[in-house]
Each structure stands twice: as C-alpha cells, then as structure tokens.
Amino acid sequence: MAATEDATTVWFHRNFLRLTGGHLKHAHYFDHVRRLPGYVPRISFTAEPGASHHPDQRRLWPPRKGAYAERWRPSRPDIFFLAGLDWRYLIDNGLDASPNPRINLIQHVRHAHEDTELHSYLKQRAVRICVSEEVAQALLATGEVNGPVFTIANGMRTPPAIALHRFAADLLPRRRRSVIVVGYKRPELANALSERLTDAKVPHQLLLDFLPREQFLAALAGAEVTVCLPNAEEGFYLPALEAMACGSVVVTLDCIGNRSFCHNLENCLVAPEDPDTLTAATIHALALYPKARKALRRRADETVHQHSLAKERQRFHEILGNIHSIW
Fold first, then answer.
1. Most-buried pick from 135, 154, 256, 317 (CB within 10 A)?
2. How many structural domains is the chain composed of?
C-alpha cells in the first residue's frame, strides 16, 4: 500500500545483519500493517559501519514504493513500532518525548531481567505485545511495566513448497530421513546427543548453524523425528511449531516459551536436558506404533492451526485499529 495523505504511518526500525527468528517475526508485523487499509508501514535500517545489506533484508521487508526511509519523520497521528533494542534509535533521534503511540513487541523474557538494557525500557510508556503468555506474566511480575500488556501468540505460515515436501514424504515414507537435531542454540548438548545417536546407529543430521528458511523447513519436512534444543528461556520457540507443521514428530526440551503449545505425549515428547535421556526419547519417538504416531501428529496439526499467521494478524489489527483509545 503506497503512502497517502490520509493514511497513518507505522514506523519500524531494524539493525539487520543476519536472519534470526526475531527478525522474521518483526517482518511479519511489518506485513500485518501493510495489509490493514488506512495504515502504511515504513522502515529505517541502521547498519554496522561497512556492513552490506543481507540478501534476506529485501525479502523480509520488501522495498515497495515508499516503504524504505532514511530516517523516521513522523507526523502526529503516526505510530512507532519498537522491538528489542529499537528504543536506542527512538532515544538517539530525540523522539522519546514524542506524543505518538508506541507499540512494543516483546519476544523474550529477558525484558523482565533487572540486569539487562531491555529491562530499563519497561519504564517507557508503550502498548506491549508479548509473543506468549509466559513472557507477559514475566513482564507483569516486575511491577514496572508502563502501559497495557497484551498477548498475541506467535503465528506461522507454511510455504506451499514445504507443504509439497510434507505431502511427498507422507506419500513415500522412505523419503523421510531418520532424525534432525536442531542444535544451533545448544551446540554442546547437541554434539553430546549426536555422539550417542551415532553409537546407537541412528542416522541423523546435526544442525549447528542457521539455514535459509525454506531449506530449513524442507529438512524438517523430510525428517521422521525432529529434536529441538531451545535455551531454558525463550520468548516463543518457533522451530518446535515449525517441525509440527512439517509433519515431523517433535522431541523437545521444556523451556519458558514453549510450554503453552508443547504438551508431552499429546502433540510432542518433552524430555529432560540429560543427553542419555534425550537419546532414549529420540529412539522412542522413532519406534512409535503407527497409531500412536498418527494421533501425535493429528494433535500437532491442531496446534499449528491454532497458531496461524492469519490469527496473529487479526488480533494485531484489533489492537492497531484501536491504538489511540488504548494508548
């Protein structure tokens, strides 16, 4: 949607160096604004000196006419969208005293930790959107949040090509590889698990680095079992939900940020951090009887349906459309 005189601009900012889950969700909200009539998203980027634009930047935030701005130039009705350390940009540009409404996307429980820079911004007035109820409760427990707090559970959309990968794997089960270990957040634990799976002669693929998103999802769609190794604290651990969407049986650790949608023996297996126990859980997942596997995947599909990007967008549009009364 091109900028018009009667449209409200929602200003975004990013310091983008490489693809992360946080950037992906930020881009989703940028697109949510684009899809709401009467609102126009614009974004400014801050790059490290000498850094070149990552090719994913233009894919996540398409440079449609008027979408990119050298810096924020808000008018009074405009809205600021802040996530992570975007508060630095707001303050450095002298906009922290502006009367414009602010929406603050909170993607991690770190915002509730007193010894972090993120925590220091809780005193700044904003309408806060938390990606999980666990994050919202952590924020509210500080007693220091300035402004209303809403929860919009993270949504996701499975690209059509990935749906085809899943269909092909379901049609020809032998196309599914054995196990994928998503270990880039917990490399030490991932390597320990990999060693034990090798000793048990379980074929597996160990992922210790980020992959391009469609390549990552295609790998999940071809896996019989996906082992997810999140940090103990997450805002919303998306790879577990992505693996469910791709038709893989999920084995995951418990963490703040996946408890609202990862339910042991209902839609996944939740295992302790111990590598021996994780190995046993992984082998158990591989050996599930077809009836048990089908039931687990059916409930996983129901979980994915409850976390659609369309539902996330609808809830955000409700808040955005009433932002001035909420503010």
1. 135
2. 2
How far is 183 from 209, CA to CA, in rounded Å? 8
> Do residues 319 and 148 touch, judged by C-beta distance below 8 A?
no
Q: Are residues 287 and 313 in the same domain?
A: no
Q: Are residues 294 and 191 in the same domain?
A: yes
Q: Kindly report the pTM of this predicted structure.
A: 0.88
CA dist 153 and 202 (Å) reads 35
Residues 130-174: tens digit of each pLDDT: 999 999 999 999 999 999 999 999 999 877 766 666 766 666 655
Distances (CA, A) of 185 to 21, 96, 253: 12, 34, 12
Tokens found for residue 32: 């949510």
Q: Quick check: is 60 in a domain? A: yes
Straight-line distance from the first to the last Cα atom of the chain, in angstroms, rounded to the nearest whole number: 25
Query: What average pLDDT does this structure show over 119-135?
Result: 96
